[in-house]
Design a protein that fits this description.
The protein has about 300 residues and is of the alpha/beta class. About 35% of the residues lie in helices and about 20% in strands.
């Protein structure tokens, strides 16, 4: 049976992906330092195919041993998002860049790597032109800059896949409320209003369960996927912040939002993304923005904002 090393497996995406991997009968080893004191894998602990190691991906001794024992590596461990990387640039550099460089120096040519990068590398976009995998990258944040650098190194080897993820949303055992859709729904429920800055700025979105499904699909189609870069997003969800608020208001009618006439959003991402390539390879997301908003409305009253984020 195939052995998979999943770094950051207790995180927002990792805790969902772990469930999918175990359901598909993979042997899964997770290394995660639980930097947010999360207990997101508790429901999976009884599964005999799961091994959890509480350690840091920067521990080169531990990583050397783990890399040698696994057929497939999915490196999710990261300082995710521009705010966290700005808050701790040294930590971000050591995890997002140096730990990946070390991993790539230790893998064999027979091992398969599926690595999430980010479509935020398209930066402030190309006007109304869809950004595809051949579009020149213009990363704005340190997070995106580092992801672009490690993607270049990753794609120097044949048995590698890079997934440029759209902005992820939805419910996870390790919940994050600092992601845009999750944040806006949370504000709509609790504050009842949002003042938007540059509300016309667009970006693409993808549900966390569809991200997990995309990894499973790549595992099942390793030969076809090797050596490829894919945008992973929901094609119908290239939305401006105003359009996203309109979708939320359909389910929370009392929600009020207004676009500010002056002021700038510190996050200057603004782009439309084409997901046609991954669709031609046979993968299609299932969860719509509307369905994701609905599940968030059900989930969020159970949570405290202070305990669910990356900053």
């Amino acid at each position: 049976m195939t052995n998979i090393l999943l770094t950051g497996g207790a995180g927002y995406i990792g805790s969902v992906l772990t469930s999918y991997l175990l359901e598909n009968e993979y042997n899964v080893t997770i290394i995660d330092n639980h930097m947010y004191d999360q207990f997101s894998l508790g429901h999976l602990i009884p599964n005999k195919k799961l091994k959890v190691i509480v350690d840091d991906v920067r521990n080169e001794g531990t990583m050397t041993k783990l890399i040698s024992k696994n057929d497939i590596i999915i490196p999710l461990a990261a300082y995710v998002g521009a705010p966290l990387c700005s808050k701790d640039p040294v930590g971000a550099n050591s995890v997002n860049k140096e730990s990946i460089k070390f991993l790539l120096s230790k893998v064999s040519n027979q091992q398969f790597i599926i690595m999430p990068t980010t479509n935020s590398a398209y930066g402030d976009g190309q006007g109304n032109i869809y950004c595809d995998e051949s579009t020149p990258l213009k990363p704005i944040s340190k997070y995106a800059v580092d992801k672009v650098e490690v993607e270049k190194l990753l794609m120097e080897r044949e048995k590698s896949v890079s997934f440029r993820l759209a902005t992820v949303f939805g419910v996870s055992p390790r919940m994050r409320l600092d992601l845009l859709v999750n944040d806006f729904v949370n504000r709509a429920l609790n504050d009842k209003f949002i003042i938007l800055f540059e509300g016309n700025f667009k970006r693409n979105y993808i549900h966390v369960s569809d991200v997990a499904r995309s990894f499973i699909y790549a595992l099942e189609n390793e030969i076809k996927f090797s050596g490829e870069i894919f945008n992973i997003g929901l094609s119908e969800a290239n939305l401006s912040k105003i359009e996203l608020c309109e979708e939320i208001k359909k389910q929370i009618p009392e929600f009020y939002f207004k676009n500010a006439e002056v002021g700038k959003d510190p996050d200057q991402r603004n782009y439309i993304v084409s997901n046609k390539k991954i669709e031609t390879f046979g993968f299609f997301p299932k969860v719509t923005i509307s369905k994701g908003i609905s599940e968030l409305i059900k989930c969020l009253p159970c949570l405290s904002h202070k305990k669910h984020g990356n900053i």
